[in-house]
Amino acid sequence: MAVRDKAPQGLSKAVPALEPVPVPGCSVCESAHADRDPARAEGRILTALSCNGVIAGHPHQMEGAK
After folding, report:
1. 33: three-class secondary structure by DSSP
2. Degrees to nearest 5, angle at CA 37 with 33 and 38
């Protein structure tokens, strides 16, 4: 079964109202952010959403945490 990663016509440049913001200096965030915009521009909305999930979902060391 093939995986569809193309958005339906007209949704290729859809941008959610709010997207996660990459944490400065985080290589995971920077990599996902670098992939997100080109994916959206090419109509690969599932990839763009996946990048959002990576940016929002991976842990960051919080200041003062042990």
Report:
1. helix
2. 115
